Amino acid sequence: MTHKQIIEELEKKSYHPVYFLSGEEAYYIDLISGYIEKNILKEEEKTFNQHIFYGRDTDISTVINTAKRFPMMASHQVVILKEAQNIRDIDKLGFYLDKPLESTLLVVNYKYKKLDKRTKLYKSLQQKSVFFESPRLYDNKVPAWIADYLKKKNYELEPGVGQSLTDFLGNDLSKIVNELEKLIIVMPPGSKTITASLVERNIGISKDYNNFEFQKALARKDILKANRIIQHFCNNPKNNPMPLTIASLHNYFTRLLLYHYVKDKPRQQLASVLKINPYFINEYQAASKAYPTGKLARIISYIREYDLKSKGVNNVSTSNCELLKELVFKILH
Description:
Elements: H1 3-11, E1 18-23, H2 26-39, H3 43-49, E2 50-54, H4 60-67, E3 77-82, H5 93-98, E4 104-111, H6 120-128, E5 130-133, H7 142-151, E6 156-157, H8 161-169, H9 173-186, E7 193-194, H10 196-202, H11 211-219, H12 223-235, H13 242-262, H14 267-274, H15 281-290, H16 293-310, H17 320-332
């Protein structure tokens, strides 16, 4: 089941005895668990019928014994085990699955990792619980996810802002949502577009010195601007970590190489293949003239080489700042 299907069932008061919520992406786990925590019981019922445990502070026997209790003056009780990845003997949950109490909603939050599919518990959960797995969203899908999240709230993004947010915040959806909600709160009355200026003022991503603008400078072979951005990155390493810059460059030049092989496709199809907004097709078209396929293959090789160097491979003392300058010199020249 998807997170939407689970919440829709809960809204209809169709409950299951066990919900096992797992995976590397915590956002949807928190969304489902949070809904259950807030909405299943009335406030006056929660005192005796809602129990929250944390994996580091409890044991599985305590959780199971609590789940076996009958509710007091309510139709259901809610038992939530948070941070279940830290609890010992999680496999003992299988005994409860054989005969769960129908009046209990046992919610297990198994975050940041996957349950071993070879285990008996995994197979049992597949058959006897609402099993939800939340995979980490790939970086190249995050800008579209941001746009979709805002669209549902009747907001939109200025072109390029979604990629800038992704480069700066990464693919942690909980962190991204937190920042987006901050931006919505501070938006000017009547405005429905999140601009680069709004992001710069409230999150700290410079609208002139970020990975998105860095890509554009390299695409145009604007040496002066590229070096200004590098210097800004060097002066602000915490806001512009080398791994994110390297990943951004690798994604960009890999897409640019792909563009050469699919450039004859219709515009919408081309955007779909490259996983970019159609708005940016013209920029890729212009950049492809400056970077032929042979050059792009060498650039991608350089990026991989300097990624390893930034992690200490074949590099003893050269700083990330100097490594980035060397890499960009090779890209541009």
